[in-house]
């Protein structure tokens, strides 16, 4: 029985992730994400009224029209975690397949919210929740297992497809973090067990494979310590405190709230996406907000909260969207003087997020920081650690799984090539057992491990 890996999206860019695995006549799809760079999309953007064909043409969502030529039946659509570059296209594409959507509880809750907000298509696929450590039979020849891992959003998993030809591991995204407060460490023992059973192919993200500055990604424990060092003394002053981070980074938001709660300040979590991710996480018992914290998403509610904070800035900590400097997100609008909160000399701004490296983000972030500085704010930009594996994490993962074949993904050609170089250090060879695919291409494996 042959196994075919079909690269639908995410093999030429960071984002727009979608892959299909064909085992005999059965197909399993992994992820349906959007490409955040192609339009002015960020965590607050709504694409619910846009048509899928228009989004495909613009390169915003995967071009899954190639699936019409795949001779097989889609049995399941599986999601690794709840970031938009993995679930953002579900409401645009899932209705084309008569297959259940499978995800962990938090990821599924975010998918349901996306589906409910959709205005163009009706998505009626069955929803199947699967926890990490659990398995489900997809077809007589395929069993799906969710293996626990860590990332920058709760309940991220590494799916493993068990087939008669070997195991296919789909790892987009992951980091090896042993010190998160909301998520247990990755299940290293299970990864090693899979390696002993026989991994036919590892499909793996390469987002940080080309970076040499941090060979092993730091734990969130480091971010917590840095945030505490930055925030502790300014919280005692009569100045403003504004913090921005990824709205989906619940682990980071929990840390910020815990530090702020040690002061006498009230915490305001502001922005539409902040409300979406945090309210969901709090409802599910993942995020534990202090009693002093409030979440506001609608423009009117945000403006009222900002007006209160502007009058008594020493009584509040503002946690806002806009870490990339996106012009219509909240912190850039504050920097531009377009809200009820005016930055004053001595106010402290903590940017707990790295710049996502593309020219527009770099320019927007630089402009936002310059405007904040011109208003007299102190800016701290170093309160962040990545959610993606570094080079040495990738090396460890290869050694745990000992896969027969490697398929780098979730990156541009430079990232795929950097991962290939690393894999060759581990004894693999491009064109033999390392396979670089482009969107729309496929790799067929005949025979098991």
Automatic annotation (TrEMBL):
Binding-site residues for substrate, renumbered to this chain: 384-388
Broadest EC class assigned to this enzyme: hydrolase
Known EC number: 3.1.-.-
Gene Ontology process terms (BP): RNA catabolic process
Cytoplasm listed as a keyword: yes
Record: residues binding Zn(2+) 1: 81, 83, 151, 173
Gene Ontology cellular component annotations, sorted alphabetically: cytoplasm
One Pfam match: Lactamase_B
Binding site for Zn(2+) 2: 85-86, 173, 410
Domain Metallo-beta-lactamase: start-end pairs: 15-218
Cofactor(s) in the UniProt record: Zn(2+)
Record's function text: An RNase that has 5'-3' exonuclease activity. May be involved in RNA degradation.
Protein name, as recorded: Ribonuclease J
Gene: rnj
């Amino acid at each position: 029985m042959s196994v075919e890996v079909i690269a639908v999206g995410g093999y030429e860019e960071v984002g727009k992730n979608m892959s299909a695995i064909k085992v005999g006549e059965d197909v399993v799809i992994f992820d349906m994400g959007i490409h955040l760079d192609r339009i002015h999309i960020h965590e607050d953007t709504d694409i619910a009224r846009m048509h899928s064909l228009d989004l495909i043409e613009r390169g915003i969502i995967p071009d899954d029209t190639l699936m019409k030529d795949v001779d097989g039946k889609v049995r399941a659509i599986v999601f690794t975690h709840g970031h938009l570059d993995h679930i953002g296209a579900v409401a645009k594409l899932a209705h084309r397949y008569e297959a259940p959507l499978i995800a962990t509880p938090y990821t599924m809750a975010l998918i349901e919210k996306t589906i409910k907000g959709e205005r163009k298509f009706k998505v009626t696929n069955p929803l199947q929740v699967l926890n990490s450590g659990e398995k489900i039979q997809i077809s007589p020849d395929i069993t799906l297992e969710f293996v626990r891992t860590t990332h920058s959003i709760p309940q991220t998993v590494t799916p493993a497809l068990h087939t008669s030809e070997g195991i296919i591991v789909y790892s987009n995204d992951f980091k090896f973090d042993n010190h998160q407060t909301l998520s247990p460490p990755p299940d290293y023992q299970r990864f090693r067990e899979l390696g002993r059973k026989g991994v036919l192919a590892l499909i793996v993200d390469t987002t940080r494979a080309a970076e040499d500055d941090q060979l092993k990604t730091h734990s969130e424990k480091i971010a917590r310590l840095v945030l505490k060092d930055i925030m502790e003394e300014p919280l005692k002053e009569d100045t403003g405190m504004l913090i921005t981070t990824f709205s989906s980074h619940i682990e980071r938001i929990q840390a910020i709230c815990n530090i702020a709660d040690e002061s006498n300040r009230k915490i305001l979590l502001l922005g539409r996406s902040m409300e979406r991710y945090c309210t969901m996480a709090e409802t599910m018992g993942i995020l534990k907000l202090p009693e002093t914290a409030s979440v506001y998403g609608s423009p009117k509610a945000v403006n009222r909260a900002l007006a209160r904070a502007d009058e008594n800035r020493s009584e509040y900590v503002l946690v806002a969207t806009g870490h990339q400097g996106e012009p219509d997100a909240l912190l850039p609008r504050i920097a531009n003087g377009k809200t009820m909160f005016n930055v004053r000399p001595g106010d402290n701004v903590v940017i707990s997020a790295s710049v996502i490296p593309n020219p527009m983000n770099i320019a927007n972030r630089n402009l936002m920081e310059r405007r904040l500085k011109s208003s007299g704010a102190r800016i701290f930009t170093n309160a962040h650690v990545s959610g993606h594996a570094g080079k040495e994490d990738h090396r460890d993962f290869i050694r745990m799984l000992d896969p027969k074949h490697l398929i780098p993904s979730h990156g541009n050609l430079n990232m795929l090539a950097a991962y290939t170089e690393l894999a060759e250090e581990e004894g693999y060879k491009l064109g033999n057992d390392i396979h670089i695919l482009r969107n729309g291409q496929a790799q067929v494996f005949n025979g098991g491990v």
